[in-house]
């Protein structure tokens, strides 16, 4: 809940300034507990947030680590930023590494989150001042202070990278193309995944808060436009270009932002569609979206070859 550039900081959750004294912090924590406790009419989700915020900044040691941008549990020794605990708040680019062991990973093309990271770096430098040298463009304090649209780019890049790691662990029976450009458009498809359960277009998003679905579309306070409709339009363009038939569409969101882990919407504009919590993505890709056509044998090889011929990256 604190791992997104769009999330409120621990200080914001407790409603104190970053310079608050330990006594002020403790008083604010007790007040927020009373305000959010479900037994007194508060919101359970906010109550949990308050408790987690206190864990992050409730002691001098934890607070110092949080203020350095390394709040929460530490990463294993030798691991990169991607291996850090969810609340580590280090949003630097994850190194592309091969998992230890002999297990084959999914075949992957393109750079997940690459387009949005490049755009983020351009805009954060422009916003902070041209000619100014940024020691760390992912410094949490800098990111938190940036305008929403800049933070949104980084949040979406992180979402795409998280999805890519999950797909990679599915094994050699799967192939994925990241950041696929849509011809004659500025749009892109975050991921196209081919496996035994079918061919899927996937949108990885982080809207920074809870969302819901109404009439086959995602809605929420911070949801721009029509994400599902945009994904389906991009898939349609790729389908025409490659004379391919997608089996389904999947939207992947942070676990805490969806009411149920797997929400199968049925057919949206004729395409089987599901909104999925990130932790449930591997389950959905292995079993397939209801109504999606499975692909096996020579057809899977032919589909992969065809995609390799037509895919261009954003």
Automatic annotation (TrEMBL):
InterPro entries: DjlA_DnaK_co-chaperone (IPR050817), DnaJ_domain (IPR001623), J_dom_sf (IPR036869), NERD (IPR011528). Residues 66-111 are annotated as: Disordered. Residues 9-70 form the J domain. Residues 73-86 have a biased composition (Low complexity). SMART domains: DnaJ. Gene3D superfamilies: DnaJ domain. Pfam families: DnaJ, NERD. Coiled coil: none annotated. PANTHER family: CO-CHAPERONE PROTEIN DJLA. This is Molecular chaperone DnaJ. It comes from Microbacterium mangrovi.
């Amino acid at each position: 809940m604190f791992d997104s550039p769009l999330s409120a900081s621990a200080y914001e959750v407790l409603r104190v300034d970053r310079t608050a004294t330990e006594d002020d912090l403790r008083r604010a924590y007790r007040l927020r507990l009373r305000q959010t406790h479900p037994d007194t009419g508060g919101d359970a989700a906010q109550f949990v947030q308050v408790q987690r915020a206190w864990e992050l900044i409730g002691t001098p040691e934890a607070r110092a680590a949080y203020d350095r941008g390394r709040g929460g549990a530490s990463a294993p020794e030798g691991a990169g930023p991607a291996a850090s605990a969810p609340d580590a708040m280090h949003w630097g680019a994850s190194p592309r590494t091969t998992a230890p062991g002999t297990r084959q990973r999914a075949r992957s093309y393109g750079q997940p989150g690459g387009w949005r990271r490049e755009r983020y770096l351009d805009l954060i430098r422009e916003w902070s001042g041209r000619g100014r040298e940024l020691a760390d463009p992912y410094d949490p304090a800098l990111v938190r202070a940036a305008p929403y649209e800049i933070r949104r780019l980084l949040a979406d890049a992180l979402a795409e990278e998280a999805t890519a790691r999950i797909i990679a662990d599915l094994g050699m029976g799967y192939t994925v193309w990241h950041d696929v450009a849509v011809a004659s458009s500025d749009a892109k498809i975050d991921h196209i995944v081919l496996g035994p359960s079918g061919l899927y277009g996937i949108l990885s998003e982080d809207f920074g808060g809870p969302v819901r679905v109404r009439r086959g579309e995602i809605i929420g306070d911070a949801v721009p436009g029509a994400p599902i409709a945009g994904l389906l339009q991009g898939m349609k363009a790729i389908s025409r270009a490659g004379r391919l038939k997608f089996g389904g569409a999947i939207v992947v969101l942070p676990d805490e932002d969806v009411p149920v882990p797997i929400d199968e919407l049925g057919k949206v504009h004729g395409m089987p569609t599901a909104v999925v919590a990130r932790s449930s993505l591997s389950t959905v890709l292995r079993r397939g979206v209801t109504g999606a056509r499975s692909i096996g044998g020579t057809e899977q090889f032919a589909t992969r070859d065809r995609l390799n011929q037509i895919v261009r990256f954003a």
